[in-house]
Fold:
Amino acid sequence: MEIKIISEETLEEALDLIWSVFLEFEGPEYTEEGINEFKKTIDFNSILEKVKANQVILWGCFLEGTLAGVLGIRDKTHICLLFVRKELHKQGIAKGLFQKMKEICEIESPAAKITVNSSPYAVQIYRRLGFSATDKEQTVNGIRFTPMEYFE
Structure:
């Protein structure tokens, strides 16, 4: 398992992975508004601009050179994307990506809390990683999420 920053060359592949996993696991639970809103958030040009401005960092987990999962970080302490290929679920990829994020957070923002707005599908995954809900599920622009925070 190799975890490294997603380059401009692999950005499109990463966004395709995110979109396909979203459609399979989240899309069926979302309204058309929510699906369209999510699609806007992962628009190539929009993400590329945020990456170049260091507003978002995307980490990829590669298995034998193949992209297996992606974790996006906003503001150095907020997980904005975490998606793993369906056939590779429950193999420690999300955990590996999260461990890498924790390492970076401890260096750059040692006292900061790690947060996420978890999709309904991922709440249990984040709980296993050590997150707890800080509020009830909410819906904004069709996007359903539960605010969560990591407690070590």
